[in-house]
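Propose amino acids for all 218 sites.
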């Protein structure tokens, strides 16, 4: 099971995440309390030239040219589109960045599966999240996890991974890993006083590791 730590916004955040067992480092380039500048990300990572993790750049309704500039400057591996971007927007970004993976965030709703189907063939993976009233994500709110299996089934039909985000934290992650998603995306759930907590990361990783060990033993 893949693990992504998102919303890293300080040198300490980055150091804790790089030294963890997560698979992806997520950085927010959209208006947010966790918004970062690509120059800061470069500076924070200068001591880690050989990363074990892939770097994810998160955008909301950004111009393809701006996305291209940031991704190339920061040498990101994956673009995460977190707004109401269209399929046409995805292809415009692909024209700008032909060698970068694109993940589309799907906000849980009664129409979410139809939205996923619209993006078939255009993206490389999905993240299902809960949209807040005033923010596109990172709110600490979860959706009804009884729907996880539906999203996973659609991802499997398309041959693409599906990660689950929204309100995941050390207190409830055991319930989520039992549903066996392809991955879990966490931001506020690993924070203490607005910073990423090494202790909370370890608790998250313990549950993911326990799940993976159990599956491998079968």
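Proposal:
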């Amino acid at each position: 099971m893949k693990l992504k730590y998102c919303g890293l916004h300080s040198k300490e955040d980055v150091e804790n995440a790089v030294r963890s067992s997560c698979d992806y480092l997520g950085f927010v380039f959209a208006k947010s309390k966790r918004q970062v500048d690509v120059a800061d990300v470069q500076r924070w990572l200068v001591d880690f030239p050989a990363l074990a993790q892939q770097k994810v750049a998160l955008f909301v309704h950004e111009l393809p040219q701006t996305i291209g500039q940031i991704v190339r400057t920061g040498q990101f591996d994956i673009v995460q589109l977190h707004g109401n971007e269209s399929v046409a927007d995805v292809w415009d970004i692909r024209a700008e960045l032909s060698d970068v993976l694109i993940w589309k965030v799907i906000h849980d709703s009664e129409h979410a599966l139809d939205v996923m189907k619209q993006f078939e063939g255009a993206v490389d993976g999905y993240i299902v999240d809960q949209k807040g009233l005033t923010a596109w994500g990172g709110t600490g709110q979860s959706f009804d996890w009884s729907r996880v299996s539906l999203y996973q089934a659609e991802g499997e039909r398309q041959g693409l991974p599906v990660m689950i985000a929204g309100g995941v934290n050390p207190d409830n992650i055991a319930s989520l890993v039992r549903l066996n998603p392809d991955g879990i995306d966490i931001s506020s759930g690993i924070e203490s006083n607005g910073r990423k907590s090494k202790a909370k990361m370890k608790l998250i990783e313990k549950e993911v590791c326990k799940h993976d060990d159990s599956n491998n033993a079968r």
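Residues 28 and 68 are 15 Å apart (CA to CA). The radius of gyration is 16 Å.
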